[in-house]
Specification:
Layout: H1 2-14, H2 16-34, H3 41-48, H4 52-59, H5 62-81, H6 91-104, H7 106-113, H8 116-121, H9 127-141, H10 153-173, H11 177-200
Helix pairs in contact: 2-3, 2-5, 4-5, 5-6, 5-9, 6-10, 6-11, 9-10, 10-11
């Protein structure tokens, strides 16, 4: 039993993916706690228990760690409106799913939101940069003949993202359940209007 546990610990120490996840977890915690600028790679490796050499091998830099955190965050957001089982989601389900997703990790949302200038300066894709093309792909996937789509799918994708983001910001700033629900419903109406008007104009 003891020998099995020792083997498991040894395997975890050797597993590069496990080390990568420990580095990401530690970096996320530190970025949220003290900000990106005040966090050093030494802080990250100390908390993660992984060597600095491995951090540089996996990510090249502290910015590389942040880039990967944003990529993973965007990937998980995409899964909320584009599930693996391809279940057709309504506008309301999409908005509710994404609000619930962002609200589960408000600190990460705020960190990314407050880092817009840093991302631009370092040419790091933001969450909208990563998510909006997937919304566009989803829009294109809903029509058989893309030439029959009356609106520009790329612009529609940007508007859909903006609607969900505005609904969440309003929801977050609301003091009561009634106010929160009002922002969800207004987001749903805006999304449905966008989709209906686009379809109706064809």
């Amino acid at each position: 039993m003891v020998q099995d546990q020792q083997k498991e610990i040894l395997q975890r120490r050797r597993d590069p993916e496990e080390k990568k996840m420990r580095l990401l977890k530690a970096a996320k915690e530190l970025f949220v706690e003290q900000g990106f600028d005040k966090t050093t790679t030494k802080n990250i490796v100390k908390r993660s228990g992984v060597s600095e050499g491995i951090l540089y091998h996996q990510f090249e830099s502290k910015l590389g760690v942040f880039r990967e955190l944003i990529r993973l965050y965007a990937r998980d957001a995409i899964a909320e409106f584009s599930p693996d089982d391809q279940t057709e989601l309504t506008s309301e389900q999409i908005i509710r799913n994404l609000i619930a997703f962002v609200d589960r990790d408000k600190a990460m949302f705020a960190l990314i939101d407050n880092s817009a200038a840093l991302l631009r300066e370092n040419d790091i894709p933001s969450v909208p940069d990563l998510v909006i093309p997937e919304i566009e792909r989803s829009i294109r996937g809903t029509v058989g003949d893309i030439s029959a789509l009356p609106a520009n799918p790329a612009i529609m994708a940007k508007f859909q993202y903006a609607i969900v983001e505005a609904a969440y910001r309003g929801w977050l700033s609301s003091d009561t359940a009634e106010q929160k629900e009002a922002f969800i419903q207004e987001g749903v109406r805006s999304m449905q209007t966008l989709l209906f008007d686009s379809a109706a104009s064809g």
